[in-house]
Structure prediction request, 498 residues.
Amino acid sequence: MLKTAATELLRRTLEGIRDETKLYANTANRIGNALLALLSFIEGAPFLRKDMDDSTTHTLGMGNAHVEGDASIKGDAIVGKDGFASGLAGFGAKIGRDGSMEADSLSLRRFLEVPELRYNRVEVFVGNQWRAPGAGIIESVTPDANSDGTEAATGEIKLKLEEGEIGKVAVDDICMGIFHDYENKNNATTDSDDGKGGFRFSGFYTCYFKITAITETAHNSAFKYELRKYADGSYSKHPSRAMHFVCYGNFTNTSRQTCRYSALTYERYLAKVNDWTFGKNNIRAQFGDLSNLSMFGLNMSGYSAYINNVYLDGHLVQLGEGGIDGITPYTYSVDNIADTVPVDASGNLKQELVATQADGSREWLLHCSITVRKGQTLLICAETSGGNMSGKYALTMVCDGCTAHFDHSTLLVDTVDYKNRKTASVEVTIDCEGRTALTMQFTIKVVADGVKGDSGTEHGYDHAYGISAKLSTATPTTAPEDVTCGCARRHGAEQPEA
Prediction:
């Protein structure tokens, strides 16, 4: 209490009455005047009233406060033992007179509605992300009861909708929701994905249900549902309030049977989903890890793409394993090329395909050398595939209209059916370190000795002269008047006869 002149005067008066020693000095008049002075002081004292509305401009301290009615605060409200400081490094809490609030944390048991969330610009999904024709947020769930009082496998759901919003649900929709149950015994303990629509996430339970009837049709805000029944006769758990659910298919409505979802290691596009699970015929495309397609008889693995058609407006480039993060692509080059068989006007060879020299060595008229690199690193040609192929490549071939063999990295053509064919070819497959395969084609052309003639005569075809476009970008469009072999490949006599 503040010490004022009035309080001091009243105190001295009351102390004088208390300490009076003279007999009969405390008369009724003296005591009455003191009490009247006390009453006058109380009536005019700056005390807060509890029997009528009152206020103070000073700080009011309370040990504990209990308010049973409405509380109105027209100024700022500060909460915190040390007061309040603003900013990300601040402390305490403040509810401003303008309605703004700044605090450390907020825990809500139902919904949070805000027009914008700031600071984080990364969206993280620990579970799956879906895009589908239907979905919703559950405001309330009311399971039905059986005649014996037990919980039935049916019930009614009310959706949480914004003003004017229409619920994106329909009869026969196939729905799934994943939510945390406050009873931990109902939650999964491990993560799993069976590749057919069965998802489990530790700490959450998964429920499946179908929509059997729309009970509020103005906004599709309420509907009846039926739980999924499993092969063992058990039912899925009921959905929960605040659960988000997706309508990923429909048992009867074909316009609501397409969806897509992203899991941790792959993204999948589905169509014609008319059952609780989906199979090979429902998967229209998948990107990422394809290993779970093996359950449908599709022998696929690794991070790739499984799609229906490809419409390409640009380049398709085959790289080595990965082709990124420092793993360089494989490339091949072809040099020392001779690919033309010259014949005279009668169709006879002007040079032997394989000529034996006086020293026993042989020279091949048609040949090419194949060099393979991984980035700038030259690979070594192995005799066969298999085993440790690191730093090596192997060659295999398929001949059409000719016969040939390899001498290490050199392709040597032994025979050509030049009497009956205008062209022949050798398709070579290059196994690069056992990781990827490249393909090249060596094309052989039969060219008449400067006689073009009419199209269709035995040796009068107007043949193009040059190597295959798969081996070179320089291809002259007409044959020279006289074609001879520019070079020959010589090998030792130990090679087999042609």
Notes: The CA atoms of residues 380 and 392 lie 5 Å apart.
